Amino acid sequence: MNLDATAAAxxxxxxxxxxxxxxxxxxxxxxxxxxxxxADAEAALFTGARWxxxxxxxxxxxxxxxxxxxANARALPKRWAGAGCVHEGYLAEAMKLWPHAEPRLRKLGxxxxxxxxxxxxxxxxxxxxxxxxxxxxxxxxxxVTFGSPKVGDEDFHRDNPIVAHRxxxxxxDFAPATPLIGFAHGVxxxxxxxxxxxxxxxxxWTGPLRDHSIERYAAALAAIxx
Length: 226
Prior knowledge:
- Helix content is 36%, strand content 20%.
- The chain is built from eight helices and nine strands.
- The strands form two sheets. Strands 1-2-3-6-7-8-9 form a seven-stranded mixed beta sheet, sandwiched between helices. Strands 4-5 form a two-stranded antiparallel ribbon.
- The longest helix is centred in the middle third of the chain and has 19 residues, at 88-106.
- It is globular.
């Protein structure tokens, strides 16, 4: 499995309960070495033999996590420690995780990838900026996001240092187009095509919601040769 397909699979795992997430990660050759759950902002550190992934959970819409929905709704530009403005709701979620993730990354001792899906991708992008401004935390090998909404304004993306960012967009996924005004993406999206679904197999609905599923991202990337 290629590295970004592994990132997508681990992003899918972090939506699960910790025990189930650990089982899925083990199938990929990774162990859950840290689990961060701070006022409904969640992330997991998955460690393998050669490198690790810090995966940030996206919106738990199926469980009606109101804090996630509120984070998405707070689409106001906010000044922060870096240049430009960031999405107020996503910044708040990132700051819940940062004090707990920062010491683990500082002592990790392995190269790692920073990744997230949906809201998790937006939060991971802000975490990447916080890491870039912290001399005690090694930079990730890359920031890999799936279906991430916009995070900051043009000044944020132009003037803040950031590692290589691979931003994947699947088919008609609606999330990367949001918020509609006031925010931008820092890099061009890498298009994915998870393919048509089979109605006869009862695999759900098609369209923007279907294409936003992290499972669809993981399947599309797994089909690509390493």
